[in-house]
Structures are given as structure tokens and as C-alpha cells.
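Record now logged for everyone:
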Amino acid sequence: MMHMTFYWSKKVTLLIDSWKTDSWVSYALTLLACFLVSAFYQYLENRRIRLKAISFETPSTTPQIQIPLLQPKLHGDKAKLGVKFAGAVLFAVNSAIGYLLMLAVMSFNGGVFVVIVVGLAIGYFFFRNEGEGPSLVVDSSCACS
């Protein structure tokens, strides 16, 4: 039976019928998985934002120290197309993870809900809190971003 209100129990079915918890150990491992996936969601969103920022950078006239692994120079249409494709793939993967997190919350288990919210907050703190200016606006189809 599917719950339609929040409940607190170690017995939960998450996403698929075969992912059922019936002991405290399996429930704790499920909560750990939810926490890690939600923090990873924020990490991937950070990577997508940085990729988007790199693709829209305009070359400046003042010489700067270039770090080749962190700030690749984009030359030509093929490089821009590659960055655009990589951004689309990151968006698709991140959207899929976001929707799976939403479906996990829709299990209405209180522990799953709390762990996912805490994982998103911790992931935001470590991965997305740095260097975001007020002028940076990123489109996202997921409500949990």
C-alpha cells in the first residue's frame, strides 16, 4: 500500500518494487544512498553551470595566467559544439537525477525526505555556494535545484 501522508518507519519501498527495506541496516544504507545522490546532484549542477560559464566567456584584452585544465580555450565551431553537447548531456543526467530524487521523496517516508533535503543543502554548501554572483541565472527544469 502506498502512503499518501508522511510516515516514519524503517519499512519503505523506494523507486522500484525490489528496493524495499525491512531492517534498520537496509534503511540506513538507503538513506545514505539518498544523501549521496542528492549531494551528487548539486555537484553535477555546479559542473554544468561552470561549463556554461566557460562557453560564454569572451576573450579579454588583458593577458591572464591560463590554467589549461581548468580554463580551456575554445576555438572554432567544433569546440563550441562539443561544449554545447556536453552541457546538454549534463543537463539530461542532472534532470534524470532530480526527477528520481523527487520520486524518492514521493515515497512519503519522513527519513527519506529529511535526508534528501539535507543532502541537497550540504551539496549546495560544498559545491554551489562558491562564486555565484547575483547576475548568474541558470535555467533548470527541476524543482529541487
